[in-house]
Amino acid sequence: MNAVRRGIRNAFRNAMRSVGVVVILAVAIALSISMLIARDAVTTKINTVRASTGNTITVSPKGFFGGQGGGTPLTTAQINDLLGLSNVTGVQESLSENLTTTETSLKSPTLAGFLGRQFGGSGAGVGGSSSSTTTFTIPVRVTGTNSPGNAVTGGANGGGSEKLTSGKSFSPTSNADVAIVGSTLASKNKLKVGSTFTAWSTKITVVGIFNASSTFTDSDVLMPLATVQKLAGASGEVTSATVVVNTIDNVASVDKAISKKLGSVADVTSTQATAEAQLAPLNSVKTISTYTLIGSVIGAAIILLLSMLMIVRERRREVGVLKALGAPNRSIIMQFIAESTTFTVLGAIVGFLGGILVSSPITSALVNASGGSTSTGVSGFVRRTGGSGFTGGGSGFTPPAGATGGGLRFGGLHSTVTQLHTSAGWSTLGFALIAAIIIAALGSTVATATIVRIRPAEVLRSE
Amino acid sequence: MLKVENLDKTFNTGGGNVHAVQKVSFTANDGEVVAIIGASGSGKSTLLSLLGLLDSPDAGSIDIDGVQLANLDSSGQTKYRSTQVGFVFQQFNLIPNLSAKENVMLALEFAHWPKQDRSARAEAMLTMVGLGTDKADRRPAKLSGGEQQRVAIARAFSAQPKLILADEPTGSLDRSTGQKIVALLHEAATQQHATVLVVTHDEKIAQMADRRLEIEDGVLKEIA
Ligand SMILES: Nc1ncnc2c1ncn2[C@@H]1O[C@H](COP(=O)(O)OP(=O)(O)OP(=O)(O)O)[C@@H](O)[C@H]1O
Ligand SMILES: [Mg+2]
Question: What's the total number of domains in chain A?
Fold first, then answer.
């Protein structure tokens, strides 16, 4: 039996203490792993948000959400002007309307029970609807867009571009009575390519079905911008525009140029700036998790170090006997390192499993705690304003700060920020291993120094 | 053959210097059992620790079969402890979570005894000290004091050392068990051609030795 095997065996010599040491180590390792996972998740999210929102600027009617009555919609002409600005590569325009059952034959797949109460809670905004809150049905959102294929991008509406699963799309300049409908809405209303439905008393033909991997956007109807403007009697009006800037670096200057151009009629928000504001709490979560990570590794190392010191002291006499028997220091040290490594490996296994279990709740707790005030989602929230059933918030819509009353916080940056996916990959496992080795090594060093200092002559004195 | 000349050891304590071993000289032959008697604090254990290289002398020389211990470097000292000396302690000092046999095999491991022979050697040593195979796999806690000391003797002799240092090996045992242990040391010394130094307080035990040395305040003299 060699020193390593003796060390492993020694780890189980005092069952109570072994369990105690392993449990404490496991807690520290679990904490460090969950911090690592949280950190990874947050970093990924920060990068995703930056990447997806980096080079766009949203333009919306001034005061549109500030009061319950809504502002004056912007005009296509105003928006098209923006194309002339330098560094602007494109402008996506949209006009969103919420159609109630009296205006369309479509039924929303969203359960009224789920959202109805939130709609009801929004007060006057919903009060305009003829229904009381108890019988309230969810309206169907119809968005007219001049950028099919990209109408739900930019973090708006839950993020992601719509992907056609059947049929085809319409052209950006179309004014035909056609629509592509979200897959969820399509199945609720049994729509296929070629099916028709009515909206604004007009027969609309379904030319395609899309999937945007978000229940909310998949309940939407996308139609050509010109068609919606025509049918809704909102000719030349848009509720939202997303200006695409060539590079992220030019966003600030373009943002200024747009504000100058449109003056007080519009709220101009670069998603970049908003995203950074939104990301601030995430960045602090990242910092917290980094320090907690380092702290828990150091903590684990100290725990192990003290435990090993205690064990070596307790076995002082035994170490002396081993030395008297002619054991080289190297062999005795090896034995204690094997013992502390056994504790660490057991702690790492238990802690790794525990860490994965707790990382999800810890991550969302951290994010919610520090991001709780970010109720102004960057975009994609839908609410009714006034009795007309007019709906603001199409793609890339940004309400002014503070306009949160009654806002439905689904879709949008806020929820994507909150929807952090925690995952434990190989890198995490690798970290656990490295951390365990560092902990075991640190934990053994002081013990090692003590072992070397034990004089074998001491064993000759009776205690 | 053990040859000790002018061995000196002084401890510096807070209250002043303790001259624990003073100009100690003696020789002992292979197979010889030498009893060392003396009052408490007279320097018996200190002498043994110097002979076993657990501590280094301030002056003097120790010569075993022509090898000067003072000339050994640290790895040579470790090798000396594992192959040339065997210790038997008053407190037995067996490793508590190893079986009797594993305790013996531990000494063989440190002495770099061929791996494949260790098990058989350990069993043979346990048989020599009168412990059957039924006791070989027991842990020290499951053995009597006398049995534990037998295991310790088996361990001390296992790697065929030239010198056995026994510091009050009977101190924790009753007189008749103690006498059996010393008889066993005697037998093993003859069988293994080793020199055995036994420290004891017990005059009866001392009389079982081939020779007796008395130490008083660190000074050693032969008792006729
Ligand atoms: N490490 C040490 N530091 C200081 N003094 C020591 C040390 N070791 C031994 N001494 C002193 O040296 C003297 C001899 O001690 P030693 O242990 O050799 O006595 P002993 O003959 O074995 O006694 P006992 O029969 O009680 O075991 C004592 O006075 C003791 O206090
Ligand atoms: Mg003593």
Answer: 2
